Amino acid sequence: MPYYQTWEEFARAAEKLYLTDPMKVRVVLKYRHCDGNLCMKVTDDAVCLQYKTDQAQDVKKIEKLHGKLMRLMVSKETHSGSMETD
Amino acid sequence: MVLLENDAFLTELTRLFQKCRTSGSVVITLKKYDGRTKPVPRKGHPETFEPADNKCLVRASEGKKKISTVVSTKEVIKFQMAYSNLLRAHIDGLKKKDKKSKGKKTKAT
């Protein structure tokens, strides 16, 4: 399973994958303080997108994407109207 | 798997992060939830369940201990703010870049 090299591509692919089937997609976040790295995975059990980082500047991006996907999950709309570009 | 209220979940999540500072990992999972409490009925059986569209499930674990909570539209704003703060506060063991980057300043409340 490949790790994305750029955050932009990963975030775009993750949101796209979620919008194709919201009920199937899950988001997993794994943090290891002892190793100093953070790994994010978005999957629908068929496709798996992963991003790994050890940079503090990526924490904010990951946290924002998490929040965005959370809001998408609780909103009743099937397609989000405004796409924020980070 | 312990199902908690949003606030209790955030408290426990803080504790999970603190526990894993020396070893281990914290795994957080986020998934859309339609409010099902009964298993999916077999073929031929009527589906009497009305799926809700405004909830999501958040789970966290440090390997052994597992916690979870359900967030709905009404709670998401409050939960998401607290959750973001928590992540940013605890996920701090990563490398920092030296060069100045023009990041957006967060509003002070």
Query: What proportion of the residues of chain A is helical, as a percent range?
Result: 25-40%
Structural class of chain B: alpha+beta
Give the amount of beta strand of chain A, in percent.
15-25%
Element order of chain B: H for helix, E for strand: EHEEEH
Assembly classification: heterodimer
Distance between the termini of chain A: 25 Å
Backbone CA Rg of chain B: 18 Å
Strand numbers in spatial order across the main sheet of chain A: 1-2-3
What would the average pLDDT of chain A be, to the nearest integer? 89
Main β-sheet, spatial strand arrangement of chain B: 1-4-3-2
Overall morphology of chain A: globular
| Helix/strand/pairing category of chain A | alpha+beta
The major β-sheet of chain A equals: 3 strands, antiparallel
| SSE run of chain A | HEEEH
Strand content of chain B: 15-25%
Considering residues with a beta carbon less than 8 A from a beta carbon on another chain, report the largest interface and each chain's count.
Answer: A-B, 35 and 40 residues
Shape summary of chain B = elongated
Organism (chain A): Phoxinus phoxinus
Family (chain A): Belongs to the SRP9 family.
Subunit structure (chain A): Heterodimer with SRP14; binds RNA as heterodimer. Component of a signal recognition particle complex that consists of a 7SL RNA molecule of 300 nucleotides and six protein subunits: SRP72, SRP68, SRP54, SRP19, SRP14 and SRP9.
Subcellular location (chain A): Cytoplasm
